[in-house]
Design brief:
Helices cover about 15% and strands about 15% of the residues. By secondary structure, the chain is of the alpha/beta class. It has a single domain, classed as Leucine-rich repeat, LRR (right-handed beta-alpha superhelix) (Alpha-Beta Horseshoe), CATH 3.80.10.10. The N terminus is likely disordered. Bound molecules: 2-acetamido-2-deoxy-beta-D-glucopyranose (NAG) (2 copies). One 2-acetamido-2-deoxy-beta-D-glucopyranose binds next to helix 4 and strand 2.
C-alpha cells in the first residue's frame, strides 16, 4: 500500500540497524503510590490530603511561586495554609468522599484530580484512589528553579507518591541540568513529563531509562540539551511521544546517532528530533509491519529535519499511518 504522503525525493541512503538488545531490559512492575495514610483501596484521606497539599506548597515555593504569571488560587493556599484547604467540601456525588479544596474545579491553577467514579478520562481509569492528584500543568507560567530544581523535584516525588502521573511545565524559565535520577516514587508510575521550552542544559540522564518505564509522553524540546540519546532509554517501552527537537536553537543540540531502540518502541506515534546534530540514519524499523499491526497503529508524526542524517527512504513505504513528515535540511 502506498504511504499517505509524498516521499520527498533524493534523500539518500539508509542502512539497516540491528535491533537493540537493550529494549528487553524494560517493563518493570507498575509503581504503587506510597502516600502517607493511604491504604490500599482507601480514598485520599486527611493524612494523604495533607501530604499532597504540603508538597504542592513546596513545589510552589521552590519554583518561584511569587513570580508565577498565572497563580490563580496558589497565593490563597500559601496564605491560608493547608488546614483551611482540607476541610471536607460538598462532595460531587453523595457517595463520593469529600474533595479537598485543591481538587475543586478551577480553584488551584493547573491542578487536576482523579474523579471518583472513574473511567471517562484515561487517567481516571488508572486512578489509584478517588481524589488523588493526577495532573499538574503549569505552562507558560514563569516558573523558575532557583536552587537548580532540587526542591521542586523532591516535591514532584512526594506528589507522585500520592498519585501524580503528569507534570507539564512547558514554556517556563527552568534552567540547569536534568537530575541524574528522578525521585523513586515516579518509577514505573509517571505517564507524562513535559519540560519543553525552558532553558535546561546538559545531557540526557541515562538513569531515567530504568525509571520511566511507564512514561507515554516525554517532551524535552526547545531547551539547551546536548550529547547523545542514551541507549538506556530503551527502557521507556511505553513511549508514544518523544520530543527532543530544537535543542540546537539556543544550545549545542543532541548529537550521535539515533539509537535503534527508537525504531523498536512498540507504541511510538510522535517522534520529534528536528534541529539537532544527529548523524547516521533513521531506524528503518520505525515503520515495520509489527509496529503497524500494533494496537493504536503505527507512527503518525516524524520530525527529523535540520540534522545531519543520511539514508534512503524505501522503508518509508511501510509508514501507512504517517500524517506529518518533516525531513528538510537533513544535511545541515
Ligand atoms: C518572572 O520571574 C522573574 C523572577 O524569576 C521576575 O523578575 C519577572 O518579573 C517575572 N516575569 C513575569 C512576566 O511575571
Ligand atoms: C492528565 O494527564 C494525562 C496523562 O498524560 C492526560 O491524558 C490528561 O489529558 C491530563 N488531564 C488533564 C485534566 O490535564
Amino acid at each position: 500500500m502506498a504511504p499517505r504522503f509524498g516521499v520527498p525525493p533524493a534523500f539518500l541512503l539508509l542502512l539497516l540497524l540491528a535491533l537493540d538488545p537493550l529494549h528487553r531490559a524494560s517493563a518493570q512492575a507498575a509503581g504503587r503510590p506510597s502516600c502517607p495514610g493511604l491504604e490500599s483501596g482507601s480514598p485520599c484521606g486527611e493524612a494523604c490530603q495533607a501530604a499532597v497539599c504540603g508538597a504542592l506548597l513546596d513545589f510552589y515555593d521552590a519554583s518561584g511561586g511569587a513570580t508565577w504569571r498565572d497563580a490563580a488560587g496558589w497565593p490563597d493556599l500559601a496564605r491560608q495554609g493547608c488546614a483551611a484547604w482540607l476541610r471536607a467540601a460538598a462532595p460531587a456525588a453523595p457517595a463520593a468522599p469529600a474533595a479537598p479544596r485543591y481538587c475543586w474545579r478551577g480553584e488551584l491553577a493547573g491542578v487536576a484530580c482523579c474523579l471518583p467514579g472513574r473511567g471517562e478520562r484515561p487517567e481516571d481509569a488508572a486512578c489509584p484512589f478517588p481524589w488523588s492528584l493526577s495532573n499538574l500543568s503549569l505552562m507558560n507560567n514563569n516558573l523558575t528553579a532557583p536552587d537548580g530544581g532540587a526542591r521542586a523535584w523532591a516535591a514532584l516525588g512526594r506528589l507522585a507518591a500520592c498519585g501524580l502521573r503528569s507534570l507539564v511545565v512547558q514554556g517556563n524559565q527552568i534552567a540547569g541540568p536534568l537530575p541524574a535520577r528522578l525521585p523513586r516514587s515516579v518509577e514505573g508510575w509517571l505517564w507524562e513529563l513535559d519540560l519543553s521550552e525552558n532553558q535546561i542544559s546538559g545531557t540526557l540522564p541515562p538513569g531515567w531509562g530504568a525509571q520511566l518505564t511507564q512514561v507515554r509522553h516525554l517532551r524535552l524540546s526547545r531547551n539547551r540539551l546536548e550529547g547523545p540519546i542514551p541507549q538506556a532509554w530503551g527502557g521507556m517501552r511505553r513511549l508514544e511521544q518523544l520530543y527532543l527537537g530544537s535543542n540546537r536553537i539556543q544550545g549545542r543540540g543532541i548529537t550521535g546517532t539515533i539509537p535503534a531502540f527508537i525504531g523498536a518502541l512498540p507504541r511510538l506515534k510522535h517522534l520529534n528530533l528536528r534541529f539537532n546534530k544527529l548523524t547516521g540514519t533513521l531506524p528503518p524499523a520505525l515503520c515495520d509491519a509489527a509496529r503497524l499491526a500494533a494496537p493504536g497503529g503505527g507512527l503518525e508524526v516524524l520530525h527529523v529535519s535540520s540534522n545531519r542524517l543520511v539514508g534512503t527512504l524505501e522503508w518509508m513505504a511501510g509508514c501507512e499511518d504517517l500524517i506529518t513528515l518533516d525531513l528538510g535540511h537533513l544535511g545541515t
